[in-house]
Amino acid sequence: MPSxxxxxxxxxxxxxxxxxxxVAAMFYPTVWxxxxxxxxxxxxxxxxxxxxxxxxxxxxAEAWTEGRLGSLYLNSIIVTASAVxxxxxxxxxxxxxxxxxxFPFRRTLHRLMLIGxxxxxxxxxxxxxxxxxxxxxxxxxxxxxxxxxxxxxSLTVFIMYGYFQQVRTDMEEAAMLEGANTWQIFRDISxxxxxxxxxxxxxxxxxxxxxxxxxxxxxxxxxxKQTLPVGLIRFFGRYSTDYSxxxxxxxxxxxxxxxxxxxxxxxxxxxxxATAMD
Length: 278
Known about the structure:
This protein is an all-alpha fold. It contains 13 helices and no strands. InterPro entries: MetI-like (IPR000515), MetI-like_sf (IPR035906).
């Protein structure tokens, strides 16, 4: 009996080959970064694409100590977790209101909310700086938490609104007949039903806020309150750079967030697919 591989057409083998090349091209930069983190600075330039002659695990400890990555990690975790929690909760509440409630200017407000998808961050950087200065929030974690949450709202509302449109309203209507108020319906019925999409947007927003650099450079000056993307810049010297330390710091910074994404990617795909269904 012929095997499955024997029955594949030449076109399918070409598709597999092209797909394999694309996957290799996507993953190789990360693999190259990790391998370079184990090399010396001289070895990186001498043989950039080869395996390390000696696996220097001490590079990671040195990068962690010299770059003070512990405090940077703490700041990034606090900023990211706070901004993601705020954005996902309020965006879900807004999407529920836009999809379930009737109130004046509902459609207009919904469209205005989505304008944020079209605005690049540099456009609002100066106004944001002025607002944060007037509120005396510069050089505080709130200077990153609030803009990060606000910047994530538009996309999160867009995705959550589409998900609410796919959810049947039978249970909500039954709860309303039983005397439940709007908050009880939202908390006890709607939130559990849209939880997969909330998790999807939490992951997407985590990646975006974790990697945010421009606002962190503009709004935070004190080193003890800076986040990881800003701290990585300190590894680049004015006249010389120890690239082994750079790659070690990059590996420490990026691998946890990549691991989080790969562990939860099926939830991301499921959430986005459900939103896209008509």
